[in-house]
Amino acid sequence: MNVEVSLRPVREDDLTFLNDLSNDPAASGTYQWNGWHDPHVYRRRWAENGLLADDRGLLIVSAGADRVGLVSWRKILTPGESYCWNIGALLAPETRGRGYGTRAQRLLAEYLLAHTRVNRVEASTEIGNVAEQRALEKAGFTREGVLRGFGFRDGAWRDGVLYSLLRADLSETPSDER
């Protein structure tokens, strides 16, 4: 991958892109399509907090000057009054398979570990989503196990796979080696 991948906050002119990406079955793809949703949800959240809240957030993924997708995170409560972040990514169909998702998820994990006190960033995907599993592994995440009956999609319960990246994992694989 020769194009620099970066993350940035959502701007108002990104809202149509976000809605089109997440509210169209062809754009979302097999593993991300969960049915149509309120087409104004991003606009309302953007007006409220720019899609950056204390318990969740969303950033635009750029490859060079091109907008190629989004990454998001949400707070997951863990024992002992602590929490971790669960992250996800969604790329435009024409940009998939180029390494952008791998790089974007690594950048997001590094950002969250640098700017919050969490020790763990996790991600999950359907067991059949081999491309996402490869992307997470290339981004330095460790496969932890199978989550039986984890998510409901397309009329059936699907198994998932859970991955994590801990703060200590960052020192093992520098970002610039990815």
Topology overview:
Elements: E1 5-9, H1 15-22, H2 25-28, H3 41-49, E2 56-63, E3 66-78, E4 82-91, H4 100-115, E5 120-126, H5 130-138, E6 142-153, E7 156-166, H6 167-172
List keywords for this structure.
single chain, 178 residues, Aminopeptidase, seven-stranded mixed sheet, 6 helices, 7 strands, 29% helix, globular
Description of the structure:
The chain has 178 residues and is α+β, with helices and mostly antiparallel strands. It has one domain: Gcn5-related N-acetyltransferase (GNAT) (Aminopeptidase, 3-Layer(aba) Sandwich), CATH 3.40.630. The protein is built from 6 helices and 7 strands. A 7-stranded mixed beta sheet has the order 1-2-3-4-5-7-6, with helices on both faces. β2 and β3 form a beta hairpin. α4 packs across α5. The longest helix has 16 residues. The protein is globular and about 40 Å long. The model has no long low-confidence stretch (mean pLDDT 94). Keywords: Transferase. InterPro entries: Acyl_CoA_acyltransferase, GNAT_dom, Ribosomal_N-acetyltransferase. This is RimJ/RimL family protein N-acetyltransferase.
The top level CATH class name: Alpha Beta
Structural class: alpha+beta
Overall radius of gyration: 16 Å
Neighbour order of strands in the largest sheet: 1-2-3-4-5-7-6
Total beta-strand segments: 7
The CATH architecture assignment turns out to be 3-Layer(aba) Sandwich
Protein name: RimJ/RimL family protein N-acetyltransferase
Keywords: Transferase
GO molecular function: protein N-terminal-serine acetyltransferase activity; protein-N-terminal-alanine acetyltransferase activity
InterPro entries: Acyl_CoA_acyltransferase, GNAT_dom, Ribosomal_N-acetyltransferase
